[in-house]
Amino acid sequence: MLIGKSAGLPGEFILLFTILIWFLFFLVYLGNRHSKLNRWCFISGMCFSMGVLKEYLYFTLFPVLCREYPGLMNENLSLTIYSILTAVMYYYAMPSAIVFAFYFSSFDQRYPQYFSWLRICIFIPAILFGIRYPYMQTRHYQLYDYIYYLTAAIYNWLYGIIFTLLILNTLKRERKSEVYEQKRLVAFLCLIPIWYELLSAFLVHVLRIKPLFKLWQGNLVIIFLLIIYYLYHAFNGGIMGARFMHQTYDWDKEGRLINKSAHFIRHVVKNEIAKIEWGASSIEASDFTDKKEILNLTQIIARSARHLDDYMSKINDYSEDIKLEPSMVSVPSLIEDCIHDFRSLKSDISFDLNLPPDSELFCDYKHIHEVMTNLLNNAFEAIGESGTITIGFQPHPKQNLACLYISDTGSGIPAGQLPRLFTPYYTTKTTNHHMGLGLYYCRNVMLKHKGSIQVESKEGAGTTFTLCFPFKYRPQDKRR
Known about the structure:
Layout lengths: L10 H21 L4 H33 L6 H30 L2 H4 L1 H10 L2 H9 L5 H7 L1 H28 L6 H27 L12 H17 L6 E2 L3 E2 L13 H24 L5 H29 L7 E4 H9 L9 E6 L5 E4 L1 H19 L3 E10 L4 E8 L29 H11 L3 E6 L5 E8 L4 H4 L2
Parallel strand pairs: 4-6
Antiparallel strand pairs: 1-2, 3-5, 6-7, 7-9, 8-9
Helix pairs in contact: 1-2, 1-10, 2-3, 3-6, 3-8, 8-9, 9-10, 11-12, 13-14, 14-15
């Protein structure tokens, strides 16, 4: 019998180890079940947990079952289960962690044309491993094939390095963003147990340091401390979408900031109410002899009331869930509808349209019209008295993308403002007319289209916004 007692922690502690891993990653999953980051963090955590579970089953539970219930469990079956669980950890844990890192770094939003294929390709080596070293025989290879263990170790280390680079590069790139603190907490939560596992479970065995073969069990202490770490932050500000005794939110997006914007709304409403109260008080104190003055006061009250109505409507429209009704839309017709009302605003601002007459987009007309209107408003304000607005369309079938861009010759955007540009309620304007929801709405519309919005700007040299859509053919083309 190969089954027997294993050096290291007693079986009960290995079982506790497994339960703690499951507990931690179930907390992560329940923090926000709708977040793909949370889901893939959970999946990778479950794959890693198989490495601990197999140890408990093979060295503690299965010997008892073999002795007490030989018809239910035998040596061959126990070896097969052990081998399969080993393969899950060796082959699939790190690829799952890489997918998590892709979402963590917003790779799916920044490079949607590559993401779908890359997410699949990252698992191809795992499949090839399963062909070369069948899942049901990994225990044999572990014990008798050093090349197998060395190959598995290098495979996991390479993925670990890629994972680490994605995480650290994201922290560097987003160090000035609103979600940096959240992502820093998550990086700490993930990097420590993964690298302890990669070094203690693979390096020690590759170097054949037998006294340290069970060093990986020290991860029990790390997981226990990480649970405390997670719970501490869940009760103090939130982590990965969970804020205990308060609410849940999308930890990897800026949507949570809307919950902190009551002071902004109160500020705008307070100003308009002050105007209304001042106008009403002036009317009450008036002797009604100057009709022109009364008319001016009533107009002030009416404007403030309309502003409040428009303001609350915008908040409702831009903050609620976006529902799409996509169809094939003529790009030239869409753009012409968008710029129709702008042409007469400033005669010294010209339009340069680079739109193929037969160009089309598969999109929601209403929402994309609103997005373009927001971008045109920003362009007009950036240009000032005179300049040029360029709107163009560029299909990229090989990249599965269709891009609509709008450029202006305005003042540009300072580099320090670019990371916060799509944050809700962030605005560089000083008037109450600007709520800072326009670009936030634009980004959400593009995300709903499975696309992205990108900005390039240089202070004093203009700005370009690019809307990237997944390339789709006409319905009739699909039937050919």
